[in-house]
Design a protein that fits this description.
about 325 residues, alpha+beta, Structural Genomics Hypothetical 15.5 Kd Protein In mrcA-pckA Intergenic Region, Chain A, 2 domains, 11-stranded mixed β-sheet, 7 helices, 14 strands, globular
């Protein structure tokens, strides 16, 4: 994004880039899900741009966002709710979006905004006047990442769960498809908000950044790609995506952490339907009872079909070595 465009609305910037288009045409382009902002679909013409934003105009509209019926509740009681988050929905609002009017929020509701009404319907109760009790996010998944999440339903539960995430005592295992052949390793770096180009990344400066540790294990080689599991020892923002990219194996479908500092993006010929990252396991202690809670979720259909396609391509004549099959057992902690 050019400095002169910082603070402009998305619609105003696109009209500068497309001078022959009317304001109505620009707004229609945005609301038809053909504009991406830093790798995420943006349907809000009034969104203000930042210096690090990357705007992409797509040739065809992307799929519509998930609906409430696409969110599956795995467990719910008076204190916590565990959900299977579909790809394409944001966990919670950014700070600058929280004061938006309801009309703007309805363009693309967040998961924590959808859950209260889903829980009311699930319980079979009639909705009372006013808003149903809110849920509290205690961790996040990126918009295009699918998988298991836990939300707190009370402030007491929120405090207890956030303390578990702060101590890194939760259990989290992710599955990803990455470029290249990666071997088992533990990646430990210190992450900063700006590595020098406006993006998060690792630093070698002493005393700077937050410690981040990811345990990586290959599950299966799929031709020039690898199906891997990643266990989080810490839980920093975009940790897995950054660590894998910096190791030279960006996640397939990655559009942000796909290039070394001051270098062009790495090509991705995988044809991934989205970022190929999925939160497959989640474990924690119940914040009130202390009971150990553990949940698993298989790959959703879009990623399962993507892996199957890579597997077929890898096993076709002339594709190279036979794929390495998934090993049973192995680490499950995080």
């Amino acid at each position: 994004m050019l400095p002169a465009q910082v603070g402009q609305t998305l619609a105003a910037t696109l009209r500068q880039w497309l001078p022959g288009q009317t304001w109505n045409a620009i707004r229609k382009l945005i609301r038809s899900r053909r504009v991406m902002l830093s790798g995420n679909v943006c349907v809000d013409p009034a969104r203000r741009l930042k210096l690090q934003d990357v705007v992409t105009i797509l040739a065809h509209p992307t799929a519509p966002p998930p609906r409430p019926q696409d969110v599956r509740i795995r467990y719910a009681d008076a204190h916590v709710v565990v959900v299977e988050k579909p790809a394409g929905i944001t966990t919670t609002r950014h700070k600058e979006e929280r004061d938006w009017p309801a009309r703007r929020k309805q363009l693309q509701p967040t998961l924590d905004e959808m859950l209260p009404a889903i829980l009311v319907r699930m319980a079979g109760r009639r909705r009372k006047k006013g808003r149903p009790p809110r849920v509290h996010a205690v961790h996040r998944l990126d918009r295009e990442t699918s998988g298991l999440m836990v939300f707190a339903r009370t402030r007491k539960a929120r405090h207890a769960l956030m303390e578990q995430f702060r101590r890194h005592s939760t259990h989290r295992r992710y599955v990803a498809v990455v470029q290249g052949h990666i071997e088992a390793r533990t990646i430990e770096t210190y992450l900063v908000r700006d590595r020098g180009d406006g993006r998060r990344g690792s630093t070698t400066q002493p005393g700077v950044g937050k410690r981040a540790v990811t345990h990586v294990r290959p599950l299966e080689y799929l031709g020039p790609y690898t199906l891997v599991e990643c266990r989080l020892e810490t839980g920093r923002t975009h940790q897995i995506r950054i660590h894998l990219a910096e190791a030279g194996h960006p996640v397939c479908g990655e559009k942000v952490y796909n290039k070394p500092l001051h270098s062009p993006p790495m090509p991705d010929a995988s044809g991934a339907p989205r970022i190929a990252l999925h939160a497959a396991e989640l474990g924690f202690q119940h914040p009130l009872t202390g009971e150990t809670m553990h949940f698993e979720m298989p790959l959703p259909q879009d990623l399962a079909e993507f892996v199957d396609r890579l597997r077929r391509q890898a096993s076709s004549p002339g594709a190279g070595p036979t794929p390495r099959k998934r090993r049973k057992g192995g680490p499950t902690g995080g």
